[in-house]
């Protein structure tokens, strides 16, 4: 029987589109056999793999607001001024870690029954890190596979955008956002045993008219680089979905519901094509 894997890419708040996409796939009777997530995609992938239904996620996610972003301006500025102290990040990430830990009852990734892979990047070693609940099939020698980590900590590492979030320390590693090295983890879901891969890519580099802040410039630079990366990595997928969320800001929490609806509507529009691809014989 053909195993279907879903690769959920990063994109900040736009990552909520993944919930809508998963819901549309479920309604169409498409069985999801494994998941991989990077950055924002890691949040949805982890909660889904833990056991939350798409309906539960749709009810839960709108309650995640900016109050879970624990900014530490004073500490950041002091570290910036005192050059001998390492700069960590503007947002500590502890509140978000605790939220995920509570939602998953502090489970470790190896305890999950569902095949899951979450991506992060090790700044010290310049290597990709894959947290997984299952042994990988023919893992690449250029990645490090980790199973002995709390699920919430793995998610926190995967979403820790450099400078914006404090890196996650784990057994001598300095872990940051999975999108630094692979923002749409198609190879990871293939390594979990997927025969067919649906990639949900949320990265766009559409033309913009202006930049109103230093953060908007940084976000634009990141999105351009990720869009270039995605042109190559998404070629490995059997079908790539691009929900229409390009106008959503990285941390625009007011658009959570909008993103879920966009993911759902877009995936339904392409369902005939998706089913056709999934029923093609695997060579």
Structure, briefly:
The active site is at 39 (nucleophile), 177 (proton acceptor). 37% of the residues lie in helices and 15% in strands.
Write up what this structure looks like.
- This protein is of the alpha/beta class and 283 residues long.
- Helices cover 37% and strands 15% of the residues.
- It has ten helices and nine strands.
- It has helices at 17-27, 40-50, 54-60, 73-81, 94-103, 151-158, 186-191, 214-233, 256-269, 271-279, and strands at 4-8, 34-38, 116-122, 127-132, 143-146, 168-170, 173-177, 196-200, 239-241.
- Strands 1, 2, 3, 4, 5, 6, 7, 8 and 9 form a nine-stranded mixed sheet that branches.
- Strand 6 and strand 7 form a beta hairpin.
- Helix 1 runs antiparallel to helix 3 and helix 5 (94-103) crosses helix 6.
- The longest helix has 20 residues, at 214-233.
- The radius of gyration is 18 Å and the shape is globular.
- The two termini are 13 Å apart.
- 47% of the residues are buried.
Number of helices: 10
Evaluate the radius of gyration. 18 Å
Helix vs. strand class:
alpha/beta
Mean pLDDT: 89
Motif (GXGXXG): 10-15
Motif (GXSXG): 37-41
InterPro entries: Acyl_Trfase/lysoPLipase, NTE, PNPLA_dom
Keywords: Hydrolase, Lipid degradation, Lipid metabolism
